[in-house]
Specification:
disordered C terminus; alpha/beta; TIM_sf; 8-stranded parallel barrel; TIM Barrel; 8 strands; glycolysis; 266 residues
Length: 266
Protein backbone atom coordinates (compact mmCIF):
# COMPACT_ATOMS: atom_id res chain seq x y z
CA UNK A 1 0.00 0.00 0.00
CA UNK A 2 1.54 3.31 -1.08
CA UNK A 3 1.18 5.95 1.63
CA UNK A 4 -1.05 8.87 0.57
CA UNK A 5 -0.44 12.57 1.24
CA UNK A 6 0.64 13.62 4.76
CA UNK A 7 -2.78 15.13 5.59
CA UNK A 8 -4.63 11.88 4.87
CA UNK A 9 -6.83 10.50 7.65
CA UNK A 10 -6.78 6.74 8.29
CA UNK A 11 -9.79 5.00 9.82
CA UNK A 12 -9.36 1.29 10.45
CA UNK A 13 -10.71 -1.57 12.46
CA UNK A 14 -9.51 -5.02 13.54
CA UNK A 15 -11.75 -7.92 14.50
CA UNK A 16 -9.03 -9.67 16.55
CA UNK A 17 -10.63 -13.12 17.14
CA UNK A 18 -14.10 -11.96 18.14
CA UNK A 19 -15.91 -13.19 15.03
CA UNK A 20 -16.29 -16.53 13.33
CA UNK A 21 -15.82 -17.01 9.61
CA UNK A 22 -19.41 -16.43 8.44
CA UNK A 23 -19.93 -13.55 10.86
CA UNK A 24 -16.71 -11.92 9.69
CA UNK A 25 -17.74 -11.98 6.05
CA UNK A 26 -21.20 -10.66 6.86
CA UNK A 27 -19.56 -7.82 8.78
CA UNK A 28 -17.13 -7.05 5.94
CA UNK A 29 -20.10 -6.79 3.59
CA UNK A 30 -21.68 -4.32 6.02
CA UNK A 31 -18.49 -2.24 6.04
CA UNK A 32 -18.48 -2.20 2.24
CA UNK A 33 -22.05 -0.90 2.33
CA UNK A 34 -21.02 1.87 4.74
CA UNK A 35 -18.15 2.85 2.45
CA UNK A 36 -20.26 2.68 -0.72
CA UNK A 37 -22.75 5.05 0.94
CA UNK A 38 -19.98 7.68 1.19
CA UNK A 39 -18.72 8.37 -2.35
CA UNK A 40 -16.50 11.19 -1.00
CA UNK A 41 -14.12 8.46 0.16
CA UNK A 42 -13.03 7.90 -3.43
CA UNK A 43 -11.14 11.21 -3.22
CA UNK A 44 -8.59 9.49 -1.00
CA UNK A 45 -8.45 12.10 1.78
CA UNK A 46 -9.79 9.44 4.14
CA UNK A 47 -8.37 5.91 3.84
CA UNK A 48 -10.53 3.21 5.46
CA UNK A 49 -8.98 -0.15 6.27
CA UNK A 50 -10.18 -3.41 7.75
CA UNK A 51 -8.16 -6.17 9.43
CA UNK A 52 -10.02 -9.49 9.79
CA UNK A 53 -8.66 -12.87 10.88
CA UNK A 54 -6.28 -14.78 8.60
CA UNK A 55 -8.79 -17.35 7.22
CA UNK A 56 -11.07 -14.54 6.10
CA UNK A 57 -8.49 -12.72 3.98
CA UNK A 58 -9.02 -14.34 0.55
CA UNK A 59 -12.79 -13.88 0.53
CA UNK A 60 -12.50 -10.44 2.13
CA UNK A 61 -10.15 -9.41 -0.68
CA UNK A 62 -12.82 -10.41 -3.19
CA UNK A 63 -15.49 -8.42 -1.32
CA UNK A 64 -13.29 -5.33 -1.08
CA UNK A 65 -12.19 -5.34 -4.73
CA UNK A 66 -13.01 -2.02 -6.37
CA UNK A 67 -13.77 -0.25 -3.07
CA UNK A 68 -11.62 2.30 -1.18
CA UNK A 69 -11.26 -0.16 1.72
CA UNK A 70 -7.70 -1.38 2.23
CA UNK A 71 -7.29 -4.95 3.46
CA UNK A 72 -4.96 -5.58 6.36
CA UNK A 73 -3.64 -8.59 8.29
CA UNK A 74 -3.26 -8.91 12.05
CA UNK A 75 0.29 -10.23 12.02
CA UNK A 76 3.00 -11.69 9.80
CA UNK A 77 6.11 -13.80 10.00
CA UNK A 78 9.63 -12.42 9.71
CA UNK A 79 10.47 -14.49 6.61
CA UNK A 80 9.40 -17.22 4.22
CA UNK A 81 10.63 -20.69 5.07
CA UNK A 82 10.29 -23.48 7.64
CA UNK A 83 8.17 -21.58 10.16
CA UNK A 84 5.25 -23.89 10.94
CA UNK A 85 2.01 -22.06 11.58
CA UNK A 86 3.30 -18.66 10.46
CA UNK A 87 2.10 -16.55 7.51
CA UNK A 88 4.71 -14.79 5.39
CA UNK A 89 4.41 -11.18 4.22
CA UNK A 90 4.90 -12.31 0.62
CA UNK A 91 1.83 -14.56 0.85
CA UNK A 92 -0.18 -11.75 2.40
CA UNK A 93 0.79 -9.48 -0.48
CA UNK A 94 -0.24 -12.19 -2.93
CA UNK A 95 -3.66 -12.34 -1.23
CA UNK A 96 -4.21 -8.61 -1.77
CA UNK A 97 -3.26 -7.39 1.70
CA UNK A 98 -2.00 -3.80 1.76
CA UNK A 99 -0.93 -3.33 5.35
CA UNK A 100 -0.04 -5.55 8.26
CA UNK A 101 -0.34 -4.97 11.99
CA UNK A 102 2.96 -5.50 13.79
CA UNK A 103 3.87 -5.22 17.46
CA UNK A 104 0.42 -5.09 19.01
CA UNK A 105 0.53 -5.03 22.82
CA UNK A 106 -1.10 -8.47 22.97
CA UNK A 107 1.59 -9.93 20.72
CA UNK A 108 4.29 -8.36 22.86
CA UNK A 109 2.79 -9.48 26.18
CA UNK A 110 1.32 -12.90 25.47
CA UNK A 111 3.44 -14.16 22.58
CA UNK A 112 6.81 -12.89 23.71
CA UNK A 113 7.45 -10.65 20.72
CA UNK A 114 10.42 -8.45 21.60
CA UNK A 115 11.88 -5.45 19.80
CA UNK A 116 14.27 -7.63 17.76
CA UNK A 117 11.45 -9.81 16.41
CA UNK A 118 9.30 -6.78 15.67
CA UNK A 119 12.16 -5.21 13.72
CA UNK A 120 12.53 -8.38 11.64
CA UNK A 121 8.82 -8.37 10.87
CA UNK A 122 8.82 -4.69 9.90
CA UNK A 123 11.74 -5.27 7.53
CA UNK A 124 10.11 -8.35 5.99
CA UNK A 125 6.79 -6.53 5.51
CA UNK A 126 8.46 -3.58 3.78
CA UNK A 127 10.44 -5.93 1.54
CA UNK A 128 7.16 -7.58 0.50
CA UNK A 129 5.60 -4.24 -0.40
CA UNK A 130 3.30 -4.09 2.62
CA UNK A 131 2.79 -1.07 4.85
CA UNK A 132 3.58 -1.95 8.48
CA UNK A 133 0.97 -0.68 10.93
CA UNK A 134 3.34 -0.46 13.87
CA UNK A 135 1.60 -0.60 17.25
CA UNK A 136 3.35 1.27 20.05
CA UNK A 137 2.35 2.64 23.42
CA UNK A 138 3.21 3.01 27.08
CA UNK A 139 1.99 0.43 29.61
CA UNK A 140 0.89 2.94 32.27
CA UNK A 141 -0.24 6.55 32.39
CA UNK A 142 2.78 8.86 32.17
CA UNK A 143 3.39 12.52 31.56
CA UNK A 144 2.74 13.02 27.82
CA UNK A 145 6.36 13.91 27.10
CA UNK A 146 7.59 10.75 28.87
CA UNK A 147 5.05 8.63 26.98
CA UNK A 148 6.18 10.16 23.69
CA UNK A 149 9.83 9.45 24.51
CA UNK A 150 9.00 5.79 25.17
CA UNK A 151 7.00 5.51 21.95
CA UNK A 152 9.84 7.12 19.99
CA UNK A 153 12.24 4.46 21.29
CA UNK A 154 9.79 1.73 20.22
CA UNK A 155 9.73 3.16 16.71
CA UNK A 156 13.51 3.51 16.56
CA UNK A 157 13.94 -0.12 17.64
CA UNK A 158 11.35 -1.34 15.13
CA UNK A 159 13.28 0.15 12.21
CA UNK A 160 16.70 -0.75 13.67
CA UNK A 161 17.60 2.91 13.56
CA UNK A 162 17.04 3.13 9.79
CA UNK A 163 14.77 6.15 9.51
CA UNK A 164 14.22 5.60 5.79
CA UNK A 165 12.22 2.53 6.81
CA UNK A 166 10.23 4.59 9.32
CA UNK A 167 8.99 6.76 6.47
CA UNK A 168 7.06 3.73 5.19
CA UNK A 169 5.15 3.10 8.43
CA UNK A 170 1.76 3.99 9.76
CA UNK A 171 2.10 4.38 13.53
CA UNK A 172 -0.76 3.13 15.69
CA UNK A 173 -0.32 4.87 19.04
CA UNK A 174 -2.15 2.60 21.49
CA UNK A 175 -1.54 3.24 25.19
CA UNK A 176 -1.65 -0.27 26.62
CA UNK A 177 -3.61 0.90 29.65
CA UNK A 178 -6.39 2.18 27.36
CA UNK A 179 -6.84 -1.02 25.32
CA UNK A 180 -10.14 -2.64 26.30
CA UNK A 181 -10.93 0.13 28.77
CA UNK A 182 -14.46 1.60 29.03
CA UNK A 183 -13.17 4.91 27.65
CA UNK A 184 -10.22 5.93 25.49
CA UNK A 185 -7.35 8.05 26.73
CA UNK A 186 -8.40 11.69 26.95
CA UNK A 187 -8.17 13.73 23.78
CA UNK A 188 -5.84 16.19 25.50
CA UNK A 189 -3.48 13.42 26.58
CA UNK A 190 -3.38 11.80 23.14
CA UNK A 191 -2.87 15.12 21.37
CA UNK A 192 0.00 16.08 23.68
CA UNK A 193 1.71 12.70 23.30
CA UNK A 194 1.45 12.81 19.52
CA UNK A 195 2.67 16.42 19.39
CA UNK A 196 5.75 15.54 21.47
CA UNK A 197 6.33 12.43 19.36
CA UNK A 198 6.22 14.47 16.16
CA UNK A 199 8.84 16.82 17.59
CA UNK A 200 11.20 13.86 18.03
CA UNK A 201 10.37 12.46 14.61
CA UNK A 202 10.96 15.88 13.05
CA UNK A 203 14.65 15.56 13.89
CA UNK A 204 14.72 12.75 11.29
CA UNK A 205 12.49 14.52 8.76
CA UNK A 206 9.47 12.43 9.75
CA UNK A 207 7.12 14.87 11.50
CA UNK A 208 4.43 14.16 8.91
CA UNK A 209 4.25 10.36 9.02
CA UNK A 210 0.78 9.04 9.90
CA UNK A 211 0.18 8.58 13.63
CA UNK A 212 -3.28 7.23 14.42
CA UNK A 213 -4.80 6.58 17.84
CA UNK A 214 -6.11 3.24 19.10
CA UNK A 215 -7.25 2.12 22.54
CA UNK A 216 -11.02 1.99 23.07
CA UNK A 217 -11.41 4.52 20.25
CA UNK A 218 -15.01 5.17 19.25
CA UNK A 219 -17.30 7.71 17.57
CA UNK A 220 -16.96 11.23 18.92
CA UNK A 221 -13.24 11.07 19.67
CA UNK A 222 -11.69 12.11 16.35
CA UNK A 223 -13.08 15.69 16.27
CA UNK A 224 -11.49 16.31 19.69
CA UNK A 225 -7.97 15.32 18.62
CA UNK A 226 -5.27 17.63 17.30
CA UNK A 227 -2.36 16.52 15.13
CA UNK A 228 -3.57 12.91 14.99
CA UNK A 229 -3.92 11.15 11.63
CA UNK A 230 -6.98 9.04 12.38
CA UNK A 231 -8.28 6.20 14.52
CA UNK A 232 -7.64 2.48 14.86
CA UNK A 233 -10.94 1.09 16.08
CA UNK A 234 -11.72 -2.12 17.89
CA UNK A 235 -14.90 -3.49 19.41
CA UNK A 236 -16.91 -0.28 18.94
CA UNK A 237 -16.65 -0.70 15.16
CA UNK A 238 -17.80 -4.30 15.24
CA UNK A 239 -21.11 -2.53 14.75
CA UNK A 240 -20.62 -1.41 11.14
CA UNK A 241 -22.84 1.63 11.70
CA UNK A 242 -20.28 2.99 14.19
CA UNK A 243 -17.58 2.58 11.55
CA UNK A 244 -19.74 4.69 9.26
CA UNK A 245 -20.15 7.37 11.92
CA UNK A 246 -16.40 7.66 12.35
CA UNK A 247 -15.96 7.86 8.58
CA UNK A 248 -18.40 10.78 8.58
CA UNK A 249 -16.38 12.48 11.31
CA UNK A 250 -13.19 11.94 9.32
CA UNK A 251 -14.72 13.33 6.13
CA UNK A 252 -15.98 16.39 8.00
CA UNK A 253 -12.58 16.70 9.68
CA UNK A 254 -10.81 16.76 6.31
CA UNK A 255 -13.25 19.29 4.85
CA UNK A 256 -12.80 21.64 7.79
CA UNK A 257 -9.04 21.11 7.80
CA UNK A 258 -8.74 21.95 4.12
CA UNK A 259 -10.24 25.37 4.80
CA UNK A 260 -7.58 26.25 7.38
CA UNK A 261 -4.29 28.00 6.61
CA UNK A 262 -1.81 26.75 7.59
CA UNK A 263 -2.86 23.11 7.87
CA UNK A 264 -2.90 21.30 11.17
CA UNK A 265 0.28 19.48 10.15
CA UNK A 266 -0.86 15.91 10.70
Amino acid sequence: MMLPAPDTVFIGVSTKMYMGYAHSLEWVEQLVAEVDARPALTAGRVVPFVIPSFPVLPEAARLLAGTPLVLGAQNCSWADGPWTGEVSPSMLAELGVGLVEIGHAERRRYFGEDEAMIALKVSAAVDAGLTPLLCVGETEVLEPEAAAAMVFLHIKAAVSGDWSVASQLVIAYEPVWAIGAPEPASAEYVSRVVAALRESLAQHGLAGIPVIYGGSAKPGLLPQLDGVSGLFLGRFAHDAANFGRVLDEALSFCTADALKTPSRGR
